[in-house]
Amino acid sequence: MNDREDSGLIAAVAADPRYLxxxxxxxxxxxxxxxxxxxxFVGYLLLIAFDKALLGTPIAGGVTSLGIPVGLGLILFxxxxxxxxxxxxxxxxxxxxTEILKDHGA
Length: 106
Description:
about 110 residues, mainly alpha
């Protein structure tokens, strides 16, 4: 393919209503997951700022405080959300884009 054919394909795909819906859905999902993790991290920071005693509570009378597993859980939550997004994108978004490209002869 030359540059002119590439430009035509890009324009055709960009104008496809299925592609526009795909971009909208992908964007909405990305922003929703970003907001979720942002609110989780802000909530953790607010706990640190306003209720240090709660996060400083020792677990089972040991030296580890409650803040350590909660913070670790927050990190694992972020990793899990990322993995969920990647799995969903690979299964749905990639398949839809492949179908759109196939219909346009790419």
